[in-house]
Amino acid sequence: MGRSNAFDPNRLYETVFYQILQEVHIWQLEKDANGAIQTWRLLNANPAALKNWGKSLNEVKGKTTDEIFPGVEATRAFMPIVEKIFTEKQPHSWEVNFAGTDQTLQMTSVPVDDDVFISTGVDVSHIRRSEKELKISQERLSIATEAAHIGIWEYDLLSQKLIWDTSMYQIYGVPISTPDLPLTIWENGLHQDDRKRINYDLEKSVKTGNDFDSEFRIICQKTRQIKHIHAHAVFKEGGADDSDKLIGVNIDISDRKQAQQEVELLAYFDPLTELPNRTMISDRLNQSLALSERTQTYSALLFIDVDNFKKINDTAGHAVGDELLTEFARRVKDKIRKADTLGRFGGDEFVIILNSLSGNLKTAIYLSDQFAHKVVELIREPFAISTGPETITASFGITLFKGGISAGDVLREADFAMYKAKESGRNQIHFYNPDMQRLFLERVQIENDLLTAINAGQIEVHYQLQVHEDGTIRGAEALARWRHPTKGFISPDQFIGIAEDSGQIQELGSWIFIKACSDLKDQIQPYVDPEFVMAINVSSLQIFEKEFTDTIQQQIETTGVNPSQVKIEITESAIIDGPEDIHEKMLTLKALGVRFSLDDFGTGYSSLTSLKNLPIDELKIDRSFVHDVLLDRNSSAIAKSVIVLAQSLGLEVVAEGIETNSQMTALKDMGCHAFQGYLFSKPLPLDDFLSIIKNTR
Questions:
Q1: Is the pTM of this model over 0.85?
Q2: Pairwise CA distance, residues 289 & 399, whole Å
Q3: Residue of 90, 155, 524, 681 with fewest CB within 10 Å of its CB?
């Protein structure tokens, strides 16, 4: 039953509500029996307020502040203010900061009746930001002035906002009026070869709170020229109302760098070809020797001498000879890796340092010879010089090294091999060590013989049992063997790598897969349980092929084998070096029922993240750990760790290379329940393998 002069919120809303653009809301008090204020409920709010709250009027009308803004105890926070305005009968103003934003509202609450009040809000965020930015600018100017007088900048670590002064825009060749943000200009302007290093330096400074100091290159947007920059910044720790920052300067040191480069060019580079000279070659060779010894990988030095170059100089002149050498250097330089070095040793002699070829001597010999032949083909094409096309040949001397020798000795060996090549008739490639030459020729012979081995019926698939801990058969692994007509049996260690290097692995791998599946379906299956699984090794190069899944599916369909009885063994390199779609490929085959086993686990560098994310069914403990499980504490610990890891991931684990009962017992005690090795069966031809499974059935 209201009073005749009672306050009418609807009338007030009609007269002023839509005329006020800032936030407005009307509240009615709720009091207890003693007249003490308990809370207040919303009567109305204008659209601006509702927008700020992110709610509709129907959602909030009639509700208390705690109901509208749960979790912030609004009633308790604002109670002193509400009590004050009704006690003093006067308006009261205060400021509110919204959590998670930089918005600040200046609020004013006005009592309009005994139990009704209006609150209005004015956005003063820009004023408070201006005050704050003015203070920051003064600090930034003070610090930067002490450091330098050019290129002042500030980076806020929380907001990741970068602020520049006018000099920074000039250094980057960008007008101040550009709409692009400084951080975008900075990132786009960095030289691509320096980005990774600079980002690392910045992240390190941010994490450690240390000053940032670095040199890098940028691309000036105005001139497109490369500039060299020395950047130095001071780490400024933020306070309670401020974030951590890097405040510093960029100094353009391009002129100084150019002078240094000119001095280095004269000291370490050949002025004609701009290649490393003899001094630089010696330095690079010493670095390569240290790297090879540290990593235990072979590197190679190629000593190249242009054939009959004196005749060219004598007949066409030194200017033409210089032009030919320059073009030779340019053509070869374009084809070497960044990690390698091409240098001019003097006159018509060049050297190439091929770093980190392989830990295997045969492979390193093959790769260095392959590269030398590429250079031969490269220079076979006539050189277009001012006097017309000119054709040349060159003699190559190659030596391989893995530390333990001086740079001078390496150069002498390669030089000796080069002269042997000249003695053999020029335009030849010769290895320094006769044993190396012999190994290379053997590899070439195997590669050539492998071309016809499959069609000639020389490749065989042998099978080695895999058993449960109680000795019952769980499956077998298919292993390729090569019965060479003159060399006898050649192990996979000798020819699989060659097949991969020569591009024959696709044909060979497909033949082995089809043969193993066919033998399982047609010959082995009648004598084994349905749970019998055939493990087939697949090269990482096969997996990397785009059509890998289609090929495997077609081969399974062609042979009619049950996909659930096929297990593909892959190596850790397939995970580490594999394409991004390897996970998708494996899932496609898993959907068919195919299983996957990770072979030689523990010998590579696959991460646990990769292992967890890939659909692997089984881990195989490498034979090297099994062999020493009773002799070496580290091998035993690694084997135990692999078993525990497999169990925690819900994977099966197989120990390969079991030769004694003691080894099997030790691994069984660790929790391994599946085994493979000579203790049970060596790899056998199909007929012999069938005899075993028939007798054990």
A1: no
A2: 12
A3: 90
